[in-house]
């Protein structure tokens, strides 16, 4: 490192570098080179030496060195460089002078113009303002700013030097971004009052400061010395001292200073004018006429040292002033409340007294004698909301800070106003003082939920709801368990308040179905608009860079969990990335045929390497960014000189498709490159001369992976032929063929010591190979799909495999054991990387998300959900029982009220696509496309009958009557058969394979079949643009419904109104009378329909369109009206509520939305971690069950009264078991009982927040109601085989129910009224699974 630093200080040559001579390298020359002979002359030149005119040291996060000063701020135009080593001098940095007045760049001459850098955001411009304002030491505000050595990172920097482990500096800058940008605007319009030129007395350079051009840190001074140095009058002494409370880089408004100085606004402005005249601070008047100030960085630093003993008292004074400022408002509200309801006012006063009982007034933030007020009630003035945590910490009021961190309303308020960075900073401040495990878990729950809450700020209580559900299985202290119960009650309070105010309420999950805090998944990072395909870590390991098919790369702060930089400019998906050894430069290449160089300070694109005529597949960069090699499908690879952005050599590998260059690797000495080609060869080139050193032939498929071994004398290639080969680069011969995979090799990684390598294959396995012998050391299995990437920990003790099955597996390389399965993505995992110490892994997926995993976290036993997608969900409102069918070919039975697992149905060999309960809930039918139709007894989980289906093609559509007496089956060959499910044989055939006679049936393929609840009528819809109504008993076609002009894709039957709805590719919906066959209405739709639902009374129609919107209209309407837009992906579920006043939609975008039918307004929503694939609504319980593409099942409560939160137990009976398991207590050991008075409470699976309820109180409540307690539940014997499900349900409900509260009685009565007004007919037995 010492030699590298000395190189950085070299001044660049004033003349361009001479072109290196061509060198014809032989095998002997290669041996001599690897033995240590010197390379070409520019091999000793570092990237930093030509990065800027003064060789500014890198601001990479890997470096802790102070920044060198930048001596030149010129911005040469691209392609007109007098010195190629100066091309990055155009990079704007935090040292670039502030843009002022009309876009002129200060210090750049009268005519120099400032332009927004490509790829930079407004936040980076605010960083410029902050740095210039803080670093200027006097003179005119428009003079060139001086560099600072405060070590703070820029606002959107992923590479700040000296950044603290908790990233508080970045958090401060990001949180105050808005006010800093306002200062920038004030500069632009000339509304800034510049600080006067004043230089503080010189002092000795303190230890640890830089001596290589950076300005030394100021020496310590007393307050009186600072007053004299700044020539401030004694009348300003106290005001000057109180400025110590301001955080660095943080503007403050006059309103805040008025409280801090206890002065009138006019006096504050006068004092600010005096301070600005003496160079202490800058003052700006914003467009809203509000005045803000920003202290000089050096002044504030000296002031903090001089007044550190008095600072806590000043912080307390400011907090008390803010608290007292809300007294008039609250006192007025209390007076009005007392006039209207004295009892309520007394109750509020008692609650306030209880809240602060035993707490000193000084710690409450109040002066003695003042009424206590919550800090959460302080109105925001643009300053206090962001910086309240800073002042509480400095004032020593850690208890109040903890209260804020445990208040989801406050967290949501700050999250929306300042972003996740500022909120996390408050948690970090507290954890630096008290490493409380509960606060850490709350922080994890917040970070997992923040993105969803910010995306839907209007949803009342969404953040609270998500955080509470993520803490259900966490090991919480009794105090936090009680807090969790209280928060769950507040969720329903939020819902009721939202309904009154017309805001969307949050649907409450009744099971622990969200990703749990404290588990393996630490962070979920969202932002890419397309699949994320690549990931790499910065050298420091604190930031991750991800590339996506949306053409952008993003830099994520792994401490905070936020995107801090976006690199954009490509017109196509990014295919590969590379980063310099100091982390200051990232190169990306794309299918648009270009490569781009981005600096990591603000994301500016410095160079565009254009010249290829086809997509670039891979790139390899010299660690010091002197040159880069790109491999393209145009049959060439190019060696680029980054200083001039021009190709030095064009390496031709072939022509046509077989000549495409798929991969490239640089040798450890960076002199040689190996290209992997589509013609099955690998070619080695000298990058200096461009000469081909040799061709390595032997593979019979594409060579798409190439790696050098650390010694530089051998290389490994991997191919689509399923093998990898180890090559001797001296002779060009193949030493070993690593054969064993049965499909192509997708990934290849070489160990740091070069003794072994790992390959991942399309066959779903990974193999560890001994490079010396060519033998397979170990075979790693476990995936159910292809392996797309393998990643090694730096210590070579852990291996991560990413797979197309949506998971990543971690293995212990010492013994080959699987450590854990990283499950959370809802699409194939494309890439993975492990951090430097091996504790964390980062994965990217087809679902566009980036996930961070913590191997040191506890292993949370997942509920008994499906493996893979959930294809269908069906339930019985009579018995409140639910069945889910997934990609794992299993059907799982659930208790809807309790949310607990009841049993496993494991007989199908292919995934079940259709399921339906009988009307009384005693029987269940499951159907899979392989012509397997099984009838089950729900009580015993035993098969009643296997229904015979004639041989032929697979089943395409299925429907059954409400009592499961009959069913209609449609196969892909358009054979339609009506079967008797109870006898297991067929009744009649409506249409046979090969029949295309319009007189007897459809003339084209049948898309879907429907059946009325009584089973007497069957409807078929076809590609021939017609629908046919059949008599299921005789097989006669009753009528043909014509009118559609394109293929009919689906339909829906309303039993109450005897209506049939059909829709198709002609973008129309037609309503037909089942009795007469007449077309009642034709509605033109804005787009093609995916699903249709009719209200229980049959008078309203809801249509889910292919553009992810919903249309709701009356059956008599002829137009669909305005589409209701909320979802961003296909809608997979659509239901009316029991009274027909609301429509519920679920989508693949992981959201559920509740719409008001009359107004079209959103009245409720829920957001999950993965997409919803199917849903079922229980109108009796007002619960929605939704399946996901990860196999998880959510049970969502649409009601407004609290219920318990049972946890779905991970109990799975053995395959083939026919007995229903007895009701058992599945609470965690030592956990108290569930809430005794919750409607539909479920103590069987209760844990988490319900466990915080006092056990004695719960048992007493049960005794008062005459109900059996916990022991009675555990002693219940299993029901006999074939027992009615009602008996089991009744026993379970008696165990858990309690006397209803008045509110619950009111809700029950309202439900009965709705049902009496709008009778709900029998739900259609099943929806088409296709």
Automatic annotation (TrEMBL):
Composition bias type Polar residues, residue spans: 73-88
Keywords of the record: Repeat, WD repeat
Domain of life: Eukaryota
Start and end residues of each APAF-1 helical domain: 377-443
Short name of one Pfam family: WD40
InterPro entries per the UniProt record, alphabetical: APAF1_C, Quinoprotein_ADH-like_sf, WD40/YVTN_repeat-like_dom_sf, WD40_PAC1, WD40_repeat_CS, WD40_repeat_dom_sf, WD40_rpt, WH-like_DNA-bd_sf
Ranges of compositional bias, category Basic and acidic residues: 34-43
SUPFAM superfamilies: Quinoprotein alcohol dehydrogenase-like (SSF50998), WD40 repeat-like (SSF50978)
Name the record gives this protein: APAF-1 helical domain-containing protein
Compositional bias segments (type: Low complexity): 48-64, 346-362, 1226-1239, 1247-1275, 1282-1293, 1318-1330
Regions of compositional bias (Gly residues) in chain numbering: 100-111
Cellular component terms per the entry's GO annotation: cytosol; transferase complex
Positions of WD repeats: 525-566, 567-608, 609-650, 696-737, 738-779, 780-821, 822-854, 863-899, 905-946, 999-1040, 1041-1082, 1124-1165
Residue segments, region Disordered: 1-158, 194-216, 333-367, 1209-1330
């Amino acid at each position: 490192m010492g030699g590298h630093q000395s190189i950085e200080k070299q001044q660049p040559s004033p003349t361009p570098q001479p072109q290196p001579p061509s060198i014809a390298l032989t095998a002997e020359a290669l041996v001599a080179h690897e033995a240590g002979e010197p390379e070409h002359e520019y091999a000793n030149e570092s990237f930093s030496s030509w990065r800027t005119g003064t060789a500014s040291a890198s601001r990479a996060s890997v470096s802790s060195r102070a920044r060198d000063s930048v001596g030149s701020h010129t911005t040469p135009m691209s392609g007109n460089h007098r010195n190629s080593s100066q091309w990055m001098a155009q990079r704007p940095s935090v040292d670039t002078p502030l843009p002022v007045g009309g876009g002129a760049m200060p210090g750049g001459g009268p005519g120099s113009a400032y332009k927004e850098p490509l790829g930079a955001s407004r936040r980076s411009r605010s960083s410029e303002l902050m740095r210039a304002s803080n670093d200027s030491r006097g003179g005119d505000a428009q003079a060139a700013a001086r560099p600072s050595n405060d070590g703070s990172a820029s606002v959107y920097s992923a590479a700040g030097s000296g950044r603290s482990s908790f990233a508080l500096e970045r958090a401060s800058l990001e949180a105050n971004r808005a006010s800093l940008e306002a200062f920038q605007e004030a500069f632009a319009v000339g509304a800034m009052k510049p600080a006067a030129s004043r230089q503080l007395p010189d002092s000795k350079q303190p230890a640890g400061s830089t001596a290589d051009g950076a300005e030394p840190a100021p020496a310590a001074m007393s307050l009186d010395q600072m007053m004299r140095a700044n020539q401030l009058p004694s009348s300003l002494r106290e005001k000057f001292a109180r400025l110590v409370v301001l955080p660095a880089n943080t503007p403050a408004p006059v309103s805040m200073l008025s409280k801090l100085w206890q002065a009138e606004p006019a006096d504050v402005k006068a004092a600010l004018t005096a301070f600005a005249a003496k160079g202490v601070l800058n003052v700006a008047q914003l467009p809203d006429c509000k005045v803000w100030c920003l202290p000089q960085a050096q002044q504030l630093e000296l002031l903090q040292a001089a007044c550190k003993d008095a600072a806590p008292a000043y912080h307390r004074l400011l907090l008390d002033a803010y608290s007292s400022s809300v007294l008039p408002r609250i006192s007025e509200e209390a007076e009005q409340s007392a006039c209207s309801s004295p009892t309520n006012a007394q109750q509020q006063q008692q609650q306030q007294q209880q809240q602060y009982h035993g707490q000193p007034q000084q710690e409450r933030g109040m002066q003695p004698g003042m009424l206590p007020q919550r800090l959460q009630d302080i109105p925001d003035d643009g300053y206090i909301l962001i910086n309240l945590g800073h002042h509480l910490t400095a004032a020593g009021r850690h208890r109040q800070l903890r209260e804020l961190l445990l208040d989801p309303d406050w967290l949501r308020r700050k999250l929306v106003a300042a972003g996740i960075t500022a909120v996390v900073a408050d948690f970090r401040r507290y954890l630096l003082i008290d490493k409380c495990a509960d606060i850490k878990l709350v922080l994890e729950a917040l970070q997992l939920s923040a993105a969803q809450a910010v995306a839907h700020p209007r949803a009342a209580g969404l953040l609270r709801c998500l955080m509470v559900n993520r803490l259900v299985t966490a090991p919480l202290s009794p105090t936090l368990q009680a807090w969790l119960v209280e928060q769950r009650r507040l969720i329903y309070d939020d819902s009721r308040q939202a309904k009154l105010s017309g805001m969307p309420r949050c649907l409450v999950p009744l099971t622990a179905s969200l990703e749990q805090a404290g588990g393996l998944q630490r962070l979920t990072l969202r932002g890419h608009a397309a699949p994320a395909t690549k990931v790499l870590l910065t050298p420091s390991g604190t930031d991750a860079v991800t590339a996506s098919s949306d053409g952008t790369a993003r830099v994520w702060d792994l401490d905070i969990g936020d995107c801090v930089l976006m690199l954009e400019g490509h017109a196509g998906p990014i295919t590969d990335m590379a980063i310099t050894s100091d982390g200051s430069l990232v190169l990306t290449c794309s299918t648009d045929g270009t490569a781009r160089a981005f600096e990591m300070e603000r994301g500016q694109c410095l160079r565009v390497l254009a010249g290829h005529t086809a997509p670039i597949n891979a790139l390899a960069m010299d660690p010091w960014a002197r040159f880069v090699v790109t491999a393209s499908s145009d049959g060439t690879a190019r060696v680029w000189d980054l200083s001039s952005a021009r190709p030095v050599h064009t390496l031709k590998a072939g022509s046509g498709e077989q000549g495409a260059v798929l991969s490239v690797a640089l040798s450890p000495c960076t002199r040689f490159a190996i290209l992997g080609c589509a013609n099955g060869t690998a070619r080695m080139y000298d990058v200096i001369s461009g000469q081909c050193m040799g061709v390595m032939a032997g593979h019979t498929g594409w060579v798409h992976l190439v790696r050098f071994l650390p010694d530089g004398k051998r290389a490994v290639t991997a191919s689509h032929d399923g093998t990898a080969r180890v090559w001797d680069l001296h002779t060009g011969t193949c030493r070993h063929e690593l054969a064993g995979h049965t499909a192509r090799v997708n990934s290849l990684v070489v160990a740091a010591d070069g003794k072994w390598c790992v390959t991942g294959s399309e066959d779903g396995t990974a193999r560890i190979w001994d490079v010396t012998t060519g033998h397979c050391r170990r075979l790693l299995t476990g995936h159910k799909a292809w392996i797309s990437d393998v990643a090694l920990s730096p210590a070579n003790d852990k291996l991560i495999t990413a797979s197309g099955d949506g998971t990543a597996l971690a293995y212990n390389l010492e013994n080959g054991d699987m450590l854990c399965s990283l499950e959370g993505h809802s699409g194939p995992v494309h890439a993975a990387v492990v951090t430097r110490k091996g504790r964390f892994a980062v994965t990217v997926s087809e679902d566009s998300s980036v996930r961070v995993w913590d191997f040191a976290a506890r292993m949370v036993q997942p509920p008994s959900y499906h493996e893979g997608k959930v294809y269908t969900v069906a339930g019985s409102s009579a018995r409140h029982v639910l069945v889910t069918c997934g990609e794992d070919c299993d059907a799982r039975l659930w208790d809807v009220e309790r949310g607990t697992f009841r049993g496993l149905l494991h007989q199908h060999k292919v995934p079940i696509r259709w399921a339906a309960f009988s009307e009384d809930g005693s029987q269940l039918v499951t159907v899979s496309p392989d012509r397997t139709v099984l009838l089950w007894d729900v009580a015993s989980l035993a098969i009643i009958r296997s229904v015979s289906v004639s041989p032929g093609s697979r089943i395409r559509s299925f429907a059954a009557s409400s009592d499961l007496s009959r069913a209609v089956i449609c196969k892909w060959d358009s054979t339609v058969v009506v079967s008797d499910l109870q006898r297991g044989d067929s009744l009649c055939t409506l249409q046979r394979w090969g029949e295309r006679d319009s007189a007897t049936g459809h003339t084209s393929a049948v898309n879907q079949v429907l059946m009325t609840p009584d089973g007497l009528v069957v409807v078929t819809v076809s590609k021939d643009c017609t629908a046919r109504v059949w008599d299921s008993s005789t097989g006669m076609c009753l009528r043909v419904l014509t009118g559609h002009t394109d293929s009919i894709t689906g339909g829906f039957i309303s039993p109450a109104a005897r209506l049939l709805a059909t829709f198709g590719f002609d973008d129309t919906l037609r309503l037909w009378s089942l009795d007469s066959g007449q077309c009642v209405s034709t509605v033109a739709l804005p787009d093609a329909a995916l699903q249709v639902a009719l209200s229980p009374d049959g008078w309203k129609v809801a249509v889910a369109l292919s553009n992810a919107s919903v249309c709701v209209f009356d059956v008599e309407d002829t137009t669909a009206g305005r589409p209701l837009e909320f979802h961003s992906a296909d809608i997979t579920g659509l239901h009316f509520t029991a009274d027909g006043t609301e429509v519920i939609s679920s989508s693949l975008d992981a959201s559920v939305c509740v719409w008001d039918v009359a107004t079209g307004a959103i009245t409720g929503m829920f957001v999950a971690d993965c997409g919803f694939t199917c849903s079922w609504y229980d109108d009796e319980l007002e619960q929605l069950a939704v399946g996901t593409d990860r196999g998880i099942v959510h049970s969502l409560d649409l009601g407004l009264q609290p219920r318990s939160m049972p946890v779905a137990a991970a109990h799975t009976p053995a395959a083939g078991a026919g007995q229903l398991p007895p009701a058992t207590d599945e609470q965690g050991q030592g956990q108290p009982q569930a809430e005794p008075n919750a409607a539909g409470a479920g103590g069987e699976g209760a844990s988490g927040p319900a466990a915080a309820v006092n056990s004695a109180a719960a048992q007493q409540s049960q005794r008062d109601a005459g109900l059996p307690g916990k022991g009675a539940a555990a002693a219940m014997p299993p029901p006999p085989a074939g027992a009615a499900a009602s008996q089991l349900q009744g026993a379970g409900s008696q165990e858990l129910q309690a006397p209803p509260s008045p509110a619950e009685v009111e809700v029950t009565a309202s439900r009965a009224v709705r049902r009496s007004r709008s009778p709900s007919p029998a739900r259609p037995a099943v929806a088409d699974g296709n």
